[in-house]
């Protein structure tokens, strides 16, 4: 039995004539302890896919099985690191993590929980900033808090939705290493969604491209047979790396071209009305 | 040679002095002082300009009215009467003063007389309490109500009554509008259920609110001889002012960032936790904006409502002075106007301070 299984997933937004099929026929299996990266263009439905797996959304048809059980709701077993940090701005770093830890371990005493918060803040080396609010932190620091929050709940699987997309290249490199460190320590299962092929190759065991939506579907998988721990500079000269990278980019470029050639299709914009508040 | 030494010494002394000064005032930058001085200067200047314009305006109105009076006396009663009228106006006698916009100095004099009046009345009250102390003790012992001072209220008492009314009304508005706002913000179906209600009652004028509240409270208090003016006025003020808070709270709660809701879902917070730990904190800025509007509306409608309800506040004071038509009535009205304005301003600052204390994005509002 696979650890995570996606069977014939379709996801449609809207109803009737205005409906758009965002994802169609998605099939994916992941084993325990595996690190899988899904690479795709922006707007190809990556976030929708993530939300289906973490339980925030339900598929229109098909099923998501987590350890053989259908996913119908969010669970503490699947930790999520969001694209835009999603820290609560009125809480400090410590309080943000404490809130998560308290939900994950409701039986533990406050002292034990605080210890846990401190441990994870230290892990992402933010101990001096534990009493600061997210607004006072840089983008990279905020994302580290988000990482610490997700991991402090001790999830079996980490789902990352473009966690490093908004960061500069240097910070991104550091955080990639940090995430890999944590992952390899406990050998958790990890799913990374990214738009950066290099990031995928550096971090994952398998890369699966997502063909752009509407009707996005998963492409053929690429195995990364590079030994861990991987070295970024050494990897540049690795023939395996070059081969895989070229293959993936070529594949993505081909889809891009395909996408351009069918661009004469006229898309009907959905008729949207602004949300009405009591005003 | 010696002179040079002295010069050198002086020079070093002056630099020393500068260094000490710099040490004494490390945090205050020179620019900061200059800027705040400049701002205060501009404010003072504009106040002076305002007072000057006011003074000239009131003088022109005074002259116009005086000329008309003399002219009228001349055409109706002849030369002698006109001269008598002119002499009377010039002498400042209260019987023939033109009744128009008072000048700043008149208003200032009125303020002083109102304060002096307050001292007289409080002395009266103290004397009365002393005189009645023994009797009241007996009455309380006998299980009867003590005798209380029922004389005229002083200006300060009136202001305090008004502030009390506004705060009672504001609290009522807060207790009604915030919970209902949260509930209808959370549920779209309740929101549409309440929408017509809010749309219809929001624009109702303070006068009508007063009449509505009067109808209900009068019946509730039936057979009770106690004074219900205060109750009626604060309830009317609250109902008049609560709409801004209601709408803002509902909007704040309904428009919480989707990301925060997702976080709440992923952390699997319970409904109670979700409302109090995520939804409420994130809508606090909007709730407070609503509360600030509510407070200023409460203070604004207070005058009209107190006037109608005959509650011993500033509204009634203004109206009675207008009806009274005494020599210094106009000046007293202007005093009341300034007091209302200044208290309204202070209340708004107070709310802003509270808002800054409890909200997380401090720089985004002012």
Per-chain topology:
The complex is a heterodimer of chains A (279) and B (366).
Chain A: E1 4-13, E2 20-30, E3 35-40, H1 46-54, E4 61-66, E5 69-70, E6 78-81, H2 93-104, H3 110-123, H4 139-152, E7 157-161, H5 169-186, E8 189-194, H6 197-203, E9 206-210, E10 222-223, H7 232-235, H8 239-261
Parallel strand pairs in A: 3-8, 3-9, 6-7, 7-8
Antiparallel strand pairs in A: 1-2, 1-4, 4-5, 9-10
Chain B: H1 2-24, H2 30-77, H3 79-91, H4 104-141, H5 155-186, H6 188-201, H7 206-220, H8 229-254, H9 258-266, H10 271-309, H11 314-324, H12 329-358
Description:
The complex is a heterodimer of chains A (279) and B (366). With 279 residues, chain A is α/β, with parallel strands linked by helices. Chain A has a domain at 1-68 and 195-279: Rossmann fold, CATH 3.40.50. In chain A, 36% of the residues lie in helices and 20% in strands. In chain A, strands 6-7-8-3-9-10 form a six-stranded mixed sheet, with helices on both faces. A four-stranded antiparallel sheet of chain A has the order 2-1-4-5, covered by helices on one side. In chain A, helix 2 packs across helix 3 and helix 2 (93-104) packs parallel to helix 4. The mean pLDDT of chain A is 85. Chain B folds into two domains: 2-93; 153-364, MetI-like fold (Orthogonal Bundle), CATH 1.10.3720. Chain B contains twelve helices and no strands. In chain B, helix 5 (155-186) packs antiparallel against helix 10. Chains A and B meet through helix 2 of A and helix 6, helix 8, helix 9 and helix 10 of B.
């Amino acid at each position: 039995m696979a650890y995570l299984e996606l069977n014939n997933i379709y996801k449609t937004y809207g109803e009737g004539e205005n409906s758009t099929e965002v994802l169609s026929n998605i099939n994916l299996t992941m084993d325990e302890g595996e690190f899988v990266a899904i690479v795709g263009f922006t707007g190809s439905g990556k976030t929708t896919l993530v939300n289906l797996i973490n339980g925030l959304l339900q598929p229109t048809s098909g099923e998501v099985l987590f350890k053989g059980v259908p996913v119908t709701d969010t669970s503490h077993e699947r930790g999520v690191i969001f694209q835009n940090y999603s820290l609560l701005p009125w809480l400090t770093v410590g309080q943000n993590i404490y809130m998560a830890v308290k939900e994950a371990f409701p039986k533990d005493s406050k002292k034990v929980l605080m210890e846990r918060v401190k441990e994870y803040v230290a892990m992402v080396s933010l101990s001096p900033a534990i009493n600061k609010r997210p607004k006072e932190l840089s983008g990279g620091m905020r994302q580290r808090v988000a990482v610490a929050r997700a991991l402090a709940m001790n999830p079996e699987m980490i789902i990352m939705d473009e966690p490093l997309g908004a960061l500069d290249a240097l910070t991104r490199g550091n955080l990639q290493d940090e995430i890999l460190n944590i992952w390899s320590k406990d050998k958790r299962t990890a799913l990374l969604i990214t738009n950066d092929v290099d990031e995928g190759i550096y971090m994952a065991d398998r890369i699966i491209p997502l063909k752009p939506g509407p009707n996005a579907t998963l492409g053929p998988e690429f195995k990364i047979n590079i030994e861990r721990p991987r070295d970024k500079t050494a990897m540049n000269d690795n023939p395996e790396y070059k081969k895989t990278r070229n293959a993936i980019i070529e594949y993505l470029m081909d889809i891009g071209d395909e996408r351009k050639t069918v661009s004469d299709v006229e898309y009907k914009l959905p008729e949207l009305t602004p949300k009405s508040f009591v005003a | 040679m010696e002179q040079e030494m002295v010069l050198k010494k002086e020079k070093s002394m002056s630099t020393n002095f500068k260094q000490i000064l710099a040490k004494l005032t490390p945090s205050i930058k020179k620019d900061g002082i200059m800027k705040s001085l400049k701002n205060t200067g501009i404010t003072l200047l504009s106040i002076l300009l305002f007072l000057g314009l006011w003074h000239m305006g009131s003088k022109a109105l005074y002259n116009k009215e005086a000329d008309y009076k003399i002219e009228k006396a001349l055409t109706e009663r002849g030369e002698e009467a006109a001269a008598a009228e002119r002499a009377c106006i010039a002498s400042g006698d209260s019987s023939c003063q033109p009744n128009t916009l008072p000048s700043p100095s008149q208003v200032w004099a009125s303020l002083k007389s109102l304060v002096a009046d307050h001292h007289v009345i409080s002395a009266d009250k103290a004397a009365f309490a002393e005189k009645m102390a023994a009797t009241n003790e007996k009455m309380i012992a006998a299980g009867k109500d003590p005798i209380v001072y029922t004389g005229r209220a002083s200006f300060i008492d009136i202001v305090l009554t008004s502030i009390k009314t506004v705060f009672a009304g504001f609290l009522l508005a807060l207790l009604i509008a915030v919970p209902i706002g949260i509930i209808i913000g959370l549920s779209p179906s309740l929101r549409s259920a309440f929408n017509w209600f809010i749309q219809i009652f929001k624009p109702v004028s303070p006068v009508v609110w007063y009449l509505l509240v009067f109808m209900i409270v009068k019946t509730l208090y039936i057979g009770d001889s106690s004074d219900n003016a205060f109750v009626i006025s604060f309830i009317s003020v609250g109902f008049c002012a609560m709409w801004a808070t209601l709408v803002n709270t509902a909007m704040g709660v309904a428009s919480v960032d989707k990301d925060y809701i997702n976080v709440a879902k992923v952390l699997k917070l319970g409904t109670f936790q979700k409302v109090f730990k995520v939804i409420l904190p994130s809508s606090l800025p909007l709730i407070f904006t609503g509360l600030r509007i509510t407070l200023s509306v409460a203070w604004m409608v207070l005058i009209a409502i107190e006037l109608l309800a005959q509650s011993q506040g500033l509204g009634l004071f203004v109206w009675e002075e207008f009806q009274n038509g005494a020599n210094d009535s106009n000046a007293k009205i202007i005093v009341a106007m300034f007091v209302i304005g200044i208290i309204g301003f202070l209340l708004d600052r107070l709310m802003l301070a509270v808002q800054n204390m409890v909200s997380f994005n401090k720089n985004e509002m002012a």
